[in-house]
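Need C-alpha cells for this chain, all 235 residues.
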Amino acid sequence: MANNAKTQPDYTIDRSVSATAVSTSPGALNASTALYRALMSNLEAWVKGTAAPVASNWPKVADGTMSVPTADPKSLSAIDLPTLGLAYSGVYNTLTVNDESVIPSIPSNKMYVVHQPTQDAQGNSKAGVKMPDSAVPLASFTGYSIRKSGFSAGNQNGLSSSQLAFALNTSSKNKADTRKSVQELYGTKAGYLSAWNASVDKLVADKLMLADDAIDYKNRGLMQSSQPNFSTLGQ
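Here are the C-alpha cells for all 235 residues:
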C-alpha cells in the first residue's frame, strides 16, 4: 500500500506550479471517469428497456445552488479564496441570442443570463453529482483557473480548473482560512475512510458508479490515508 500511495499525490499538500505554467494554481485532481462509465451503462440499459434513467441532479437558482457571477466572489456565496492564493476574476463565457437561420449566423446584443454553481463553506460547489473527491473533500476544487503574469495575467485559462488544499490539522490553519481543517471535518484517518467509503457506496446505490469501479475508489481512499502528510493525522 505504501508503494502504491506514492503514485497518488497527497491532496492535503498543495502542488507547486512550474515557472512555465500558465495558471497561478495547480489543476484540480477530481476523478470522475467512473461516473461516465456508469451513465453510459445506464443509457445502454435504458435504450434496451432493462433499466430506468438515473435520477436528475443539477444546481438550481430556486434553491440558491446557482447564481449570476460577478467580480465579487460573494456573488457565488464563495469564501475568500483569493486571500489564500486562489485567484478569482468572475469572468465567464458570455452567450448572445444569434440568428441561426442564415450562414454565417448573425449575433445580436441580446445576452443570455449565465448562471454558475454557488459554493459551500469549504469552497466547493453545493449541488450536483459529487464523486468521492468532492463528497469527502480534502481541498477546494474550482472550475476556473486564472492566468499568471506573462500569460495575459488575470484572464481565464480556458477550461482549466484549480485546487487548494485544506489545512490538515486545526492548529496549522492560516488565520485567514475560514475553511475547516481535515481534522475538523473527519477527526481521524478512520473517520475520513468511513466517510469516503460511504460516499462510494451511495454512488453505487444511486447507479452513478459501477461496482467494479467502487473497488478501485475504495483503494484510492486507502492510498490517500497512507500519504506521508495525511498519515500524521490520528488513527
